[in-house]
Amino acid sequence: MGEVVSVREAVIMAAGVGKRLKPFTEKHPKSLLDVGGRTLLERHLANLEAAGVERTTIVIGHFGDQIRDRFGARFEEMAIRYVENPRYTRGSILSMHAGLDGLRQSAVFMDADVLYHPEILRRLLRSEAPGCFLLDPSAKETGEEMMIGTRGGRCLKIARRVGADWDKAGEGVGFFALHESWLWIARQVFDDFLRRGVVDCEYEDALNALMQEVPCAFVETGDLPWTEIDFPEDVAKAEKVLARLKEMGVERG
């Protein structure tokens, strides 16, 4: 049995091509990258199931059949459903839009290319805020990371560059939670982007609009390790995170 959490559904966005991680992604989806004997996606599913999430939606596209064949309809006690994004070579906003469809309960939305301490995820799942982001305030703005600017405890901007005029700013981990009573607003925001033909953009562009409608809080990663894996050299960073997880007793082996 999982622990008591406020979020019972998850959406993992695993449709993208991941061209920066070639040659692996020329034959496989990025989420099936093996790190320390388990794929990134298996690690996500294990962490979600252990935390009490009841159903996870995986948005698939690039080599999506490999993901279906690997995991099927369940992971331990957690149900899995698949949503296809046939336009996965366009902006990631299309994957988020697809993942929103059919949600029934408060949900956490997750990029598939992150390796992290499980407690980071549990902190987000326990949030009862209308919306909530994971924030690493120790990160420095370089133009590569997706940064979040906050004021008065509320997230107000997410972009590659947000500047310094904030109460607190830091890197977004790529996870955010949304309470079920606010899902309809998220659908309206994303529907509006697609209705206007704005599809060649990152989903964070729509999240900026959503932040104006939904009060979004944040929880911090603290000193818990995590890393995003975009480039081949990021695999070395992931190995360092794994080493720390082993030292902390949360990684087997």
Give structural attributes.
ten-stranded mixed beta sheet, single chain, 27% strand, 253 residues, 7 helices, 14 strands, two-stranded antiparallel ribbon, alpha/beta, Spore Coat Polysaccharide Biosynthesis Protein SpsA, Chain A
Task: Describe the 3D structure.
This protein is of the alpha/beta class. The protein has one domain (9-247): Spore Coat Polysaccharide Biosynthesis Protein SpsA, Chain A (Alpha-Beta Complex), CATH 3.90.550. Helix content is 29%, strand content 27%. It is built from seven helices and 14 strands. Strands 1, 4, 5, 6, 7, 9, 10, 11, 12 and 13 form a ten-stranded mixed beta sheet that branches. A two-stranded antiparallel ribbon has the order 2-3. Strands 8-14 form a two-stranded antiparallel sheet. It is globular. 44% of the residues are buried.
Percentage of helical residues? 25-40%
| Sequence stretches where pLDDT stays below 50 over 5 or more residues | none
Strand content: 25-35%
Q: Please compute the radius of gyration using only Cα atoms.
A: 17 Å
Mean pLDDT: 93
Rough outline: globular
Structure described in brief:
The protein is α/β, with parallel strands linked by helices and 253 residues long. 29% of the residues lie in helices and 27% in strands. The chain contains seven helices and 14 strands.
List the helices and strands and how they pair.
Blueprint: E1 9-14, E2 34-35, E3 38-39, H1 40-50, E4 55-60, H2 64-71, E5 74-75, E6 78-84, H3 93-100, E7 107-111, E8 114-116, H4 118-125, E9 131-136, E10 147-151, E11 154-159, E12 168-178, H5 183-195, H6 203-213, E13 216-220, E14 226-228, H7 234-247
Parallel strand pairs: 1-4, 1-7, 4-6, 9-13
Antiparallel strand pairs: 2-3, 5-6, 7-12, 8-14, 9-12, 10-11, 10-12
